[in-house]
Amino acid sequence: MSTRTVEFEVARNPEMGPGGTLVASPTEPFDAPEPELGADTMLVNVGPQHPATHGVLRLVVELDGETVVRVDPRLGYLHSSFEKLGEYRTWNQVVPLTDRMDYLAPLIYNCAYVMAVEKLMGIEVTDRCRVARVVCMEMDRIFSHLLWLGTWSIDVGAFTPFLYAFQQREKVYKLHEALTGARITTSATRIGGMMADLPEGWTDGVREFANNLPATLDEIDGLLKHNAIHIGRTQGIGAISADEAVNCGLTGANLRASGVPYDVRKDRPYYDYESYDFEVPIGCHGDCYDRYLVRMEEMRQSTRILHQALDRLPAGPMDVEDPRISLPSKTDCMSDMESMIHHFKLITEGIPAPAEDCWFSVEGSKGELGMYVVGDGGPKPVRWRIRPPSFVNLSAIPRLSEGHLMADLIMINASLDIVLGEIDR
Amino acid sequence: MTRSKAPPGSFFDLAAGGAGAVDAPAAASETAAVPPCNPSVDALREQFPDGVLRNEVCAGDQDVVYVDSARLVEMLGWLHESPGQQYDHLADVTAVDHGGGRPIEVVYQLWSIPHRAALRVKCELPLDSLEIDTVTGIWVGANWLEREVYDLFGVHFTGHPDLRRILMPDNYAEGHPLRKDFPLRGRFSRAEQTRRALTQDPEDYYMPGEIGGRVPQLVAEDAGGDAEEADDVD
Question: CB contact, 8 Å: B208 with chain A?
């Protein structure tokens, strides 16, 4: 595995004292007599409608002064039981449910779902489709990380990076719109292919985006990386060791920041990821600051993958040329009896899946995104399960934040990069 | 118009082969003629000859082991600790209700980061005794995943430190939504659901003492006497 530890030229706690000497970070407790406030703790309700909870998340926090004693996350405000709804739909009709879970990286969810179903059904998609899906997934990884970057910087008190990040996100929105007609709810994939071939000039748009992104990232990095407030609020905050992170089920950038080089793209390669040249950044302290660095580097690595994928994007058909899987073209439907029958069967009955189950995990933007699909020989899933990375990542928040200050809880929550649509499903 | 066939070995080829071939995938998985791809399956069977009930290979290369629910924690602990196995990453805990009175399967997706191996462990629980030991002692990350299975399927995890509903409200009384006998739109009409929601006292949900009464381990520390109350959440 080609991984590397990113060498960061940042000194820990680099805030300068009056005489030019390094002093401790602002979060270090200072020597002053604590006023006697009594032993009672206080319960504070954070959310569910609060911008710093990044969604409809409610945290019931028990505070001792300003120190967090206990956090009890309350979920379910967005619960729509997508998994139940999926059991009443055909395999293809589930696709629109997937992008509504993680609306920050919808294409990754679209792709992961159909990849699991294709694996269950034993369908091999075309080469063009494989590469196109890689482009979609890497683009949305950046798309999701950019939103994290913007909201993260707002939580840390910096507003400018938010605007820079959203300027770049807007370009991905436009690319989504050109590809699917929708900006967020893309529903771009179908079993055996994509809903349509890539529109003309779309790859040029992606390439332009990938070309321009690193400059913006450098600009934002310049604002945050050595920023004393940013460093003071994130270094040493919410740190977790490698063993503990694995045991808590953390995945994605949160796990890699602790120094575990587990990336599904490298460890369980799918769609020829082993043939792309990219590196997996890992941190060494496992704190909020390292999560920041890891995600920033991941965006850069994703642009590398984007360039390679666009270079190798082959011509040819996008969908599997099997009339039992892919819809025939409109022209064929109108002129050819057989195509019309296939169209009718596909629309009215759907595609049958064998009575087996299948687990397929991809590296989502938030962590390991697992799809577990169970068929019964019919055209509808018996069970369709998402392994929600943010859900498991969020479950570590009591462990990460207890003992820290209330303000640090906000940064820890931001550093986990959660999306409530997927947590509540 | 050129149409190529689905790849060889796919479900479609079998299904298209005539009436006799339709049930071929089911037959193949039941006879367990397919040798497991993952050596952990054989190692587990060797270590726990009576704990492994059967195994199968799904979706081409995915190993599934059905184990005895009474010995689950012991076996998963062995898979987690044993130097040759080291399944240190519990990717998922979920359940499957096939309906028709069939037992509910609790499914554990394991992944070994050092050995890069995947294993799916399943436990079948009959509908009248939906109880299984918790694995939170092995993987802390199982906490919320088990809570979700409890919430949506009604499987009780014995020994779980904090078994409460997680996605549905604490006072949800209609049952467990992902069970097949649970209707898609719930048990009550929309009007009844609205009426119930409106008659709820919001103070019940926003009382300062709400955590104290509902988190069992804290009750034990703080008050001691309210432990029975914590069991009543269901």
Answer: yes
Q: Rounded to whole angstroms, how far apart are CA atoms A115 and A359?
A: 10
The domain B29-166 is classified under which CATH number: 3.30.70.60, 3.20.20.140, 3.30.460.80, 1.10.10.10?
3.30.460.80
The nearest alpha carbon in chain A to B63 belongs to A358
Regarding beta strands A193-194 and B89-97, do their DSSP bridges make them parallel or antiparallel, or are they unpaired?
Answer: unpaired
pLDDT digits (tens, 9 = 90+) for B117-165: 899 999 999 988 889 999 999 999 999 999 999 999 999 999 988 888 8
Q: For chain B, say whether A84 makes contact (Cβ under 8 Å).
A: yes
Residue numbers of chain A with a pLDDT score lower than 70? 1-39
Tell me what the pLDDT averaged over chain B comes to: 75
As assigned by CATH, the class of the A82-424 domain is mainly alpha
Q: How far apart are the first and last CA of chain A?
A: 34
Nearest in space to B92 (alpha carbons), one of B102, B81, B103, B105: B105
Q: What is the pLDDT of residue B207?
A: 54
Q: Which residues of B touch A258 (CB under 8 A)?
A: none
What per-residue confidence (pLDDT) applies to B230? 39
pLDDT at residue B206, rounded to an integer: 58
Distance between CA atoms of residues A271 and A114, nearest Å: 13
Q: 314-373 in A: which are within 8 Å (CB) of B?
A: 320-325, 332, 336, 339, 352-359, 361, 368, 370, 372
Q: Using a CB cutoff of 8 Å and minimum separation of 24, what contacts does B150-155 make? A: B151/B176, B152/A83, B152/B95, B152/B176, B152/B177, B152/B178, B152/B179, B153/B95, B153/B97, B153/B104, B153/B178, B153/B179, B154/B130, B154/B179, B155/B95, B155/B104, B155/B106, B155/B125, B155/B130, B155/B131
CB contact under 8 A, B141 and A353: no
Instruction: Give me the residue spans of the domains in chain B.
Output: 29-166
Name the residue ranges covered by the structural domains of chain A: 82-424
Q: Can you tell me the mean pLDDT for B85-106?
A: 90
Asked if A375 contacts A356 with a C-beta cutoff of 8 angstroms, the reply is yes
* CB spacing of A339 vs B99 below 8 angstroms: no
**pLDDT by residue (tens digit) across B155-180?**
999 998 888 888 888 777 788 889 98
Confidence (pLDDT) at B215: 38
B5, B99, B211 member nearest A62 (Cβ): B211
> What is the distance in angstroms between the Cα of B97 and the nearest Cα belonging to chain A?
8
pLDDT of residue B163: 86
Residue of A nearest to B172 (CA): A76
User: Which chain B positions have a beta carbon within 8 Å of A89's beta carbon?
Assistant: none
